[in-house]
Amino acid sequence: METKILKENQVAEAAKIIADGGLVAFPTETVYGLGADALNAEAVAKVYEAKGRPSDNPMIVHIARASDIGQLTPMLSSTIVALIDNFWPGPLTLVVKRKDGVPDRTTGGLDTVGVRMPDSKLALELINRAGCPIAAPSANLSGKPSPTRVQDVIEDLNGKVDAILEGPDCRVGIESTVLDVTGDVPTILRPGVITAEHIEAAIGRKVAIDPALHIDPTAEESDEEFAPKSPGMKYKHYAPKADMTIIEGSRDRVQAEIQRLKVLNERLGNKVGVILFEEQAFIEAAHDFFANLRDLDREGVDLILAGALSDTDGVGFAVMNRMLKSAGYNIVRV
User: Which 8-state DSSP code applies to residue 54?
Assistant: First the structure.
């Protein structure tokens, strides 16, 4: 398949491809997404094929106007309305009860659907012009680090999709917060830069954190029976080509251990890359983490040593969620 690389002024061409049942990778404020008509089961099936994505991994549906959520869910609660008013457009996905017209392929067979309105003029224009909600997981091969720059998308999907819409580097850098609002207590299924504290302030209620976020899914014996309600809950995600180890502890000890392991592995002939953010630089870490992984892959490193972030901060917790998955939960405490 020949993949067209389209400029921002060619968004109409990209939208027609979506409307005709094709696949287009496009930028959002979080990461690049791989888009298809969310209501076209055959188009959505092509997304799974292009990414090599397991078919029970649900997708997030992107809309251009908050009112378009009515196409996807039969009812809105006062909590959902408050969340929309406070956080849309923006990096918050709401898991809601789905309407019958939403295909099983889009929801991973669940009776719920994840919906968000992105905070990207280019993404919103694409959705508007396509005339349909767009299902869009991250525009990478399944399991690889999420793409935040167009070159990352080209590297993974050139020849596998109809078009790649070239836009600016993604502003946020990690995927949206996913909040399940179908139960009695709103529950975060995937953390992001919109934190539990932000959500609680907006709705005046406590928010729960899904217990699965504190568990190494690779160690779960019941993994085969687990039906993920959000992308990223079940399968290995964000993995670089290199082996990766996270070092956790006090700042001085982490720096010393990273240096010790770097010298030791370089003596063995290994090429070592380091990811170490400033202690309170959580927003910067979110923006740079996936890009750092991609750059180290391009440099051909054999081992990545990463300093852990504090997960007592909401954004730090979100970045650590990605970091742990990237490292296959390989963590050393010093």
Answer: -
> 96 with 123: CB under 8 angstroms?
no
Instruction: Decide: 213 and 188 in contact? Cβ < 8 Å.
Output: yes
> Of 1.10.8.60, 3.60.20.10, 3.90.870.10, 3.50.50.60, which CATH number belongs to 4-225?
3.90.870.10
Q: How many residues does the chain have?
A: 334
Which among 183, 238, 248, 239 is positioned nearest to 210, based on CA atoms?
A: 183
pLDDT tens, residue by residue, 18-38? 999 999 999 999 999 999 999
% pLDDT > 70, the chain: 93
Helical pair 282-299 and 314-326, crossing angle rounded to 10 deg: 20
Distances (CA, A) of 317 to 11, 17, 185, 274: 35, 37, 20, 20
- Specify the 3-state DSSP secondary structure of 206: coil
Q: Which residues contact 10 (CB under 8 A, 6 or more apart)?
A: 165
Q: Enumerate the domain spans of the chain.
A: 4-225, 243-333
Which among 71, 64, 157 has a CA at the least distance from the CA of 119?
A: 64
CATH 3.40.50.11030 fits 243-333, yes or no: yes
Residues 32-41 as b/e (b if ≥16 CB within 10 A, e otherwise) read bbbbbbbbbe
In eight-state DSSP terms, residue 203 is: H
Task: Give the predicted TM-score (pTM) of the model.
Answer: 0.94
Among 122, 139, 120, 107, smallest CA distance to 23 is for 139
Residue 237 CA to residue 323 CA, distance in Å, equals: 10
**Distance between CA atoms of residues 298 and 268, nearest Å:** 21
